[in-house]
Design a protein that fits this description.
This protein is of the alpha/beta class. The protein is about 50% helix and about 5% strand. The protein has 17 helices and four strands. The relative contact order is 0.09.
């Protein structure tokens, strides 16, 4: 008689059973693999626990993962920076993931990793971390973030480090308040909002300045800021504080140089650039979630995709493919159009152009 073949056993390291897109993805994956005869179990990660971990706690977690993995043939890691301690900094998150990966490889376990966000860059490192740096090099998503997301984040009055932490949670808990307060439905927009902010917005410039002054002094306020940077986690607050101080000092030096040289044109071209002429960004960016559903695990119900002309799409860095961006956040912006063509058969109807998409929104 032929010998009986044992099914492959997979340990999934992921969030689990919580309102999180990765947890939903992992649940669907485990169920689909079981239907194919692949046995699996889950080692649940708690992204909030990292804020309170001491070095000994991290070591124990690594040991628990390796011990659990010994009973399985393959380990599948769901990677997102916040799942490995982003609250302690991006480098710390990469280091934690790299050490867990190294432990598993040292134990002789094959590891498959699904990257749900573009890996972050940094200085050259050796070993496991160096290998991750090469993976990071294949993605241009950092370029999009620095050139597009960061300037508009500053325009909304947030420090760069603050918007990074906020947007990470937005992707992890999309439209599931209070875990995601970056976008809260319902959103109500009127023509007057477009007229007041789309061409010249001195009020936003003043609020941005005051926000940077406040954060530079180490003062955080509001439910969302205190969620991202709780008072008991002083270490995580250092990044936004440093960034706000850098912004204030940098633009202060630019202003002094402009006064000293008489080159006043530098100020509107550099310091005040985010606060005028943003009408196109207003029309594109506010389509992303307005009029859709919250508290749903399906990105097709809470994110909107529409198509644009190649030139406008280039200016908006393909973020009009917003459903695809949330479904597969690790896909670089320049590949979102190709991703859209590959899965459009499984997406809601896609309006073409700004007029069509805003007509659709107005009818909701």
């Amino acid at each position: 008689m032929p010998s009986r073949v044992e099914p492959t056993r997979v340990l999934h390291i992921s969030t689990w059973g919580v309102p999180c897109g990765i947890a939903t993805y992992a649940g669907n994956l485990v169920a689909a693999l079981e239907r194919l005869g692949v046995a699996g179990d889950v080692f649940p990660l708690d992204p909030h626990a990292w804020q309170h971990y001491l070095p000994g706690d991290v070591e124990r977690l690594r040991g628990h993962i390796v011990e659990r993995a010994r009973a399985f043939d393959v380990v599948h890691v769901q990677h997102e920076h916040g799942l490995f301690g982003l609250a302690k900094g991006a480098r710390g998150s990469a280091r934690n993931y790299g050490r867990i990966l190294g432990d598993l490889l040292a134990a002789g376990k094959p590891v498959v990793t699904t990257f749900h966000t573009a890996p972050l860059g940094g200085r050259r490192r050796r070993g496991i971390a160096g290998l991750l740096e090469k993976v990071r090099g294949f993605s241009r998503a950092r370029t999009w973030y620095r050139r597009v997301a960061a300037p508009h984040a500053r325009a909304r009055g947030r420090a760069l480090a603050l918007v990074h932490a906020s947007h990470t949670r937005h992707h992890r808990y999309t439209l599931h308040p209070p875990d995601d307060l970056e976008v809260v439905l319902p959103i109500r927009l009127m023509v007057r909002h477009f007229l007041l902010t789309g061409f010249l917005d001195p009020v936003r410039a003043w609020k941005t300045f005051l926000t940077h002054v406040r954060i530079a002094r180490g003062k955080f306020e509001g439910e969302w800021e205190l969620t991202l940077y709780p008072p008991e986690d002083g270490d995580s607050r250092s990044a936004p504080v440093r960034w706000s101080r850098t912004v204030l000092a940098g633009h202060g030096l630019i202003a002094l140089a402009a006064v000293a040289t008489g080159q006043w044109i530098v100020l509107p071209l550099v310091t005040f650039a985010p606060f005028y002429g943003s009408w196109l960004f207003f029309l594109c960016n506010n389509t992303q979630h307005i009029g859709l559903q919250d508290f749903v695990p399906d990105f097709r119900l809470c994110c909107r995709t529409f198509t644009l002309s190649p030139f406008v799409r280039f200016l908006y860095w393909n973020m009009n493919y917003h459903t695809e961006h949330h479904m597969y956040a690790a896909v670089p912006s320049y590949n979102l159009a190709r991703l859209h063509e590959a899965i459009r058969h499984d997406l809601p109807p896609t309006p073409h152009g700004l007029v069509a998409v805003w007509k659709q929104i107005a009818e909701i």
